[in-house]
Amino acid sequence: MELTPRQQDILRILKAKGQVNVKDIAIELKISQKTAKGYIRDLMRLGMVESDDAGYVKLKTDAQNKEEEIYKIVQIHESEINSLKKEIEELKEEIIRLKKRGKA
């Protein structure tokens, strides 16, 4: 999913400043607080930011995100490992065929 320019702006602000109040984001982007909250809500649904009860928003960097990243990496590597195992089995079969030809 591609982020809107405003969502990208919010992420840039959060990267630069860390934890920021919704009101300050709205002021910096020259939009209403309601509009800012809508963008932030969308970013929260995407799992990119989190908000507290006081209205402060920050990038989401919790263990759950890291777990998801690791899980994706493991899945990619498992797929590669399975592919390599299949290739090894094919090579073993080819070696057996070649050995049989050599004995005949």
From TrEMBL:
<feature type="domain" description="Helix-turn-helix type 11">
    <location>
        <begin position="6"/>
        <end position="53"/>
    </location>
</feature>
<protein>
    <submittedName>
        <fullName>Winged helix-turn-helix transcriptional regulator</fullName>
    </submittedName>
</protein>
<dbReference type="InterPro" id="IPR036388">
    <property type="entry name" value="WH-like_DNA-bd_sf"/>
</dbReference>
<dbReference type="InterPro" id="IPR036390">
    <property type="entry name" value="WH_DNA-bd_sf"/>
</dbReference>
<feature type="coiled-coil region">
    <location>
        <begin position="74"/>
        <end position="101"/>
    </location>
</feature>
<dbReference type="Pfam" id="PF08279">
    <property type="entry name" value="HTH_11"/>
</dbReference>
<dbReference type="InterPro" id="IPR013196">
    <property type="entry name" value="HTH_11"/>
</dbReference>
<keyword id="KW-0175">Coiled coil</keyword>
